[in-house]
Amino acid sequence: MAQQLPGYMAIDEHYILGKDRSIRFDIFIRQEMNGRPKPVLLIGKDTQISSVQTILAAKKGQLGTLFIKKEADRDFQQFMEDSLNLLIADPTVPVAKKSQIVYDCAKNVLQDVFDDPRSGGNLQRTQQVTNNMVDLVLSNNQSILSLLNLGTHDYYTFSHCVNVAVFGLGLWIMIHEGNNAELGDFALGCILHDVGKTLTPEQILKKPSRLDEEEFAEIKKHPLQGYALMKDYLPPIALDVIMHHHERYNGQGYPHGLSGDDLSPHAKIASIADVYDALTTNRPYGAARLPFEAILTMKKEMTGHFEQDKFLEFIRFLGGNSS
Ligand SMILES: [Fe+2]
Ligand SMILES: [Fe+2]
What we know:
The protein has two domains: about 1-70, no CATH class; about 95-320, Hypothetical protein af1432, CATH 1.10.3210. It has 14 helices and four strands. The protein has helices at about 50-60, 75-90, 95-115, 120-140, 140-150, 155-175, 185-190, 200-205, 215-220, 220-230, 235-245, 265-280, 290-300, 310-320; strands at about 10, 25-35, 35-45, 65-70. Strands 1-4 form a two-stranded antiparallel ribbon. A two-stranded antiparallel ribbon has the order 2-3. Strand 2 (about 25-35) and strand 3 form a beta hairpin. The protein binds fe (ii) ion (FE2) (2 copies).
């Protein structure tokens, strides 16, 4: 169990990667003084990473949890995101650890995007972390399983978005094995698929009971709103996923009522990933279903929503990745 220290947050030494960089935050350890936990400065900010690594290696096993001050959170977040390439390429870091870190970074970035979707900096970070996720998934096929296991069952728009990207990537790779050229753009669309909900009134998003017709009409605007928000910044595949993830194979979806092969393979896959994650997550008006219950619901109550072949592949994908 990780130690705690009020006003400080625990960090993972796996993040301290690289050579020609310095850390931008102080690192503390926790010591007991007169029966009370106290922070003790271990390594000051602006120390070269190679020196940090030397200190940590020399004291391995004696330090306990490493901490930073809570207010250094932003600096640490940016530092972590800049380390992801190195982390994914590092053969000494276990896949489960890499997956955890990539997932956490993606969730944090998404949280910032949902706070401020027009920020170019946030979008650039989203693109970067999405590419990191694609690199991880392509470099190791165990990572999909690790990433799937990280999904929480509690609903937050941003963790839902990361989960949809994970399910979407997994299914895409299964169906289109080897055709990975557009994977980054597709994953970007998945991760931002609900970005239009930043314009949906919060009382509707958080309403604990079923939505009335008017409220539902409001929520149904989010694909077009997301498209409008992002149209100048994202590649066409990503925009297509944002605009069309609520279309249905039988033409009864929205916003355009597209059907069959008028829908792109990207939109078809994203819609399966989206519905499945929504069903297996606790939401204000419904408890999470177990995976097999969700599949049953999709099969029996949502006939015609999904392209059959892709839906069957998705069941196969889940079966192959269940632990
Ligand atoms: Fe949506
Ligand atoms: Fe969604």
